[in-house]
Amino acid sequence: MEADLVLLDCNVLTMNPSQPHAEALAIKGDRIVKVGTKEEISKWIGKSTKIIELKNGETIVPGLIDTHVHIADFGRFLTWLDLKGVKSIEEMQKIIEKRAQETPLGKWILGQGWDQTSFTEKRYPNIQDLDETSLDHPIVLYHQSGCMCVVNSKALELAGVTKETDAPSGGTIEHDPETGEPTGVFRENAMNLIWKIIPEPGEEEVLDATSLACEKIVEAGVTSVHWIVSSWIEVQTILRLRAENRLPLRVYIIFPADILDQITALRSREDFEDYRVWIGGVEIFADGFLAARTASLKEPYSDNLDTKGKLRYTQEEINVLVAKLHKANFRLVIHAMGDQAIDIVLCTLEKILKELPRENHRYRIEHAAVLNNELIQCIKKLDVTVAVQPCTIISEFTDWSATDRLGLKRARWLYPLKTLFDEGIRVSGGSDCPMEQLSPFAGIQAAVTRQFFPEEQITVDEALRMYTVNAAYASFNEDITGSIEEGKLADLTVVSRDPRITPPNEIEDIKVKMTIVGGKMVYQK
Questions:
Q1: What is the 3-state secondary structure (H, E, C) of 418-433?
Q2: Are the CB atoms for 334 and 319 separated by under 8 Å?
Q3: In CATH, what number does 5-55 get?
Q4: With contact defined as beta carbons under 8 Å apart, do 117 and 81 qualify?
Q5: Is the CATH number 3.20.20.140 carried by domain 203-521?
Q6: What are the E-state strand segments in 311-433?
Q7: Strand pairing of 139-143 and 109-114?
Q8: Which of 208, 226, 228, 506 has its Cα between 20 and 30 A from that of 135?
Q9: Under a CB-based contact definition with an 8 Å cutoff, are residues 333 and 361 in contact?
Q10: pLDDT value of position 57
Q11: What pLDDT digit, counting tens, does each position of 498-510 carry?
């Protein structure tokens, strides 16, 4: 039998312990049929075989898997103004003015990525700066950290915000000290006053934006995603993309509990699970986020002793909800960041699994940020997996001042990756895009080089496992993806350098040369 595609002169990192390395591989249809030496693979070459010879240290790794992406939001952001790298408020104004000329009157202009520390003016933009660009379009521009935004008068008017408006808990509306009028700058929870009035995009806009997002994702070398959906409309978008052959990667859908009935009806369709799209886990939010001090802690926040965060459910309520989903045989993905929320979740899982045992449940805690040894041992005992977004580790310490917010003792146990690996707990990796950059190699670098509590650094091999074999395990797909083995789906990422021998602080600079999904080239640089 001859192969359809052969890759030669490769540095193949298989992530398969029984055959860690190879120098060539052959693909037939959507499957890997042979992994081995160049001589072994040459026997698979026929008249119609396509041959790709790699060079200059190019390396093949299993198709990378991102276990936490908000693709609809990412697609939407791709249509926004990109203000990263802008060097002045004046430069930003010119970018807005150009977009205003191309945008129908009254339609929102959205942007993100500005950073006042890079501006020559060394100050925040304000409502007057944005009004100078347009009074006919509502404008909102988000800071690169995502923790604040600035708006113009039109947006302020539509939001109904005046100098008498109180900021919601956990947020701030900045005011001019002389006039008392809003400056246009909203922080943290106050941003919701603006976000909630921005119109939702139409069906075709969502479709085109998510299609563009998928293209960008495969450019990053990602072959499978765990798509965090927020509504039934997103699920319909996924199905339509698949039907129109506009889905270049594999999708594991993680959906909110409030669309459970619709998902249950969909799950009865025999043609749904086709190795392209899977119904995945149902997500439950046990608490909020550290950045907004809504992650639930056992003790008060060190920089605000008046709050311990907030639980979304009581112990009794989450017991009832988890039991319902467990009995319905849904896979649980539970968002829990604070140690109090994680403790409550683990108590619930221990109770449910004792009353209704289920082998190989693979329930997972999303984020699992603030841990301690007792919680880690309980995670291990219950065989719960943990999904982490390594770039968030950097953000928590640099943008959100985690050490000040949690205190030194708790901050020491913020995302303790090395300890989790040493305890044999399976940790999968994701990006949390668009809140963090979409780059598995940036995530690997963050995990390998973390400067805050560096004793929790992990090896490149461990970090790579987060985005390959561990990620595949988290979605019950380790039999078909996650490693380069004969019989598995031909999902491959070809990169410019071997990450294991790349200087740690240069890993994120590794370039993706090709992305192959099911034996088909979906991206080539």
A1: HHHHHCCCCEEECCCE
A2: no
A3: 2.30.40.10
A4: no
A5: yes
A6: 331-336, 364-367, 385-388, 427-429
A7: parallel
A8: 208
A9: no
A10: 87
A11: 999 999 999 999 9
Fold match flag (109-195 vs 203-521): no
Distance CA 52, CA 55 (A): 10
Place of tokens 């994120």: 508
Average pLDDT score over residue span 350-356: 96
List phi, psi (to 5°) of 206.
-65, -45
User: Which of 488-507 are b and which e, b meaning 16 or more Cβ less than 10 Å from the residue's Cβ?
Assistant: bbbbbbbbebbbeebeeeeb
**CA-CA distances (angstroms) from residue 43 to 9, 52, 59, 489?**
15, 15, 22, 21
Strand 148-151 to strand 182-188: parallel, antiparallel, or no bridges (unpaired)? antiparallel
User: How many C-beta atoms surround the C-beta of residue 360 within 10 A?
Assistant: 6
pLDDT tens column, 370-401:
999 999 999 999 999 999 999 999 999 987 88
Q: Would the pTM of this model clear 0.70, i.e. be above it?
A: yes
Block residue for tokens 């399976």: 426
Neighbouring C-beta atoms of residue 203, cutoff 10 Å: 12
Where do the structural domains in the chain lie, given as residue ranges? 5-55, 109-195, 203-521
Say whether pLDDT at 359 is over 90: no
Write down the pLDDT at residue 271.
47
Q: Of 178, 173, 176, 126, which is closest to residue 153 (Cα–Cα)?
A: 126
125: cis peptide before it, omega within 30°?
A: no
Which token pair is 300? Answer: 């008060």
* Residue 97 three-state SS: helix
